[in-house]
Amino acid sequence: MTTKESKPEAAAETPKKEEDYKIELLPEDYPQYDLSFKLIFIGDSSVGKSCLTTKAVKNNFEEYYQATVGFEFLTFNMKVNDKVIKLQIWDTCGQEIYKSLISNFYRNSSLAVLVYAIDNKESFTHVENWLNDLKSQANDDVRIFLVGNKADLEEDRKVTKEEGEKYKLDQHLDLFMETSAKTGQNARNVLVEAAKILYNDYLKFDENANNKNDIPGKQKPKGTELIAKPKKAQGKKCC
Ligand SMILES: Nc1nc2c(ncn2[C@@H]2O[C@H](COP(=O)(O)OP(=O)(O)O)[C@@H](O)[C@H]2O)c(=O)[nH]1
Ligand SMILES: [Mg+2]
Question: Which ligand 1 atom is nearest residue 68's CA?
Answer without folding.
Answer: 21
